[in-house]
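Query form — protein Putative protease SohB

QUESTION: What is the three-dimensional structure of this chain?
INPUT:
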Amino acid sequence: MRNTIASYIGAQAMAVDVGFGAGLLGMALPTAEQPVAAFSAGGVTIQRGERFAISRGVGVMPVRGMLTPNSEILERYLGWSTYVGIEDTAALLAASDEVAAVVLEFDSPGGLVIGMDAAVAAVAALAKVKPVYAMVNPLAASAAYHIASQCTSIAVTPGGVVGSIGVMRAGSWPVQPDMYGEEWSIDLSTHARAKWPNPTTEAGKREIARSLDESEARFHSNVAAGRGIDPAALTLQLSVTDDPVDGGAIFYADDAIKRGLADSQETRAAFYDRVMSAHAPAPKGQARSAFAARAAASAALALT
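ANSWER: The structure tokens for Putative protease SohB are given below.
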């Protein structure tokens, strides 16, 4: 587990689909020499270190990889998105006179809970001033779907999946001697039992459930608002049975559309043809790629 993405992230609350995310979590931490392929879509190419590009009046922002609040090492060397990057980019695109509409293309199993709400709110704010189209190609699960649910509409590629709406936490607690024969203990101050809940006790389980349920409630509330679903009906709409606790599943496009979680199933090419035709009928010059690092984002925002 040492020097992996999972060890780097630690035991935190996560909004991630474990089945799709396990491979990413098990990857070794990246190095500066690790090559990252450019992202190309809708007539734009986004190189490593760039967060978005603009082509013919349409801003394109990929949302991919394991999502973290502000991990520069994962963003810079793997091309994975961060919540800070999504928030900054959404603000830049909202303020830009060059941008008439925005595409968020998703390929992510989700990520950490911490910092997620800021990215969700930023995309919701962007969608209030400009059309924001989500392209799920092929995965928007958990935290990634949380963000996608705030877009104006959601298209899923054939074979693509959305959902996994819920929150989880993985952690450990010492219960026996380690390989050296030493047994570790965790000691907390008198009024800090919730600092590191003991999952082997009923009190610890209750505290873990309380914290996860708080995050899930915000998740459900945002999805219901973003997708126009009755909050009282949402848990049954997400359940694979008649019991509302059986949520957290992923859904292919047809099922997702029936449940109100997506709007259409389209190939990637057809999606970009539709969006570009609606907002940019004819090409006008070369696609412009824009590096939106934090410093540049701050400077641009200061001018608006």
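ADDITIONAL NOTE: The longest strand covers residues 101-112.
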